[in-house]
Amino acid sequence: MARIRPARTMRNPNSQAWARYSLKKPRKNYIRALPHTSLLIFNMGVKKDTYDLELKLTTEQPIQLRSNSLEAARLVANKYLENNIAQDYMFKVLVYPHNVIREHKMATGAGADRISQGMSLSFGRPVSLAARLRRNQPVFMVKTNSANRDVAVTALRRAMAKLSGTYKIKAS
Question: What is the CATH number of the domain that holds 134?
Answer without folding.
Answer: 3.90.1170.10
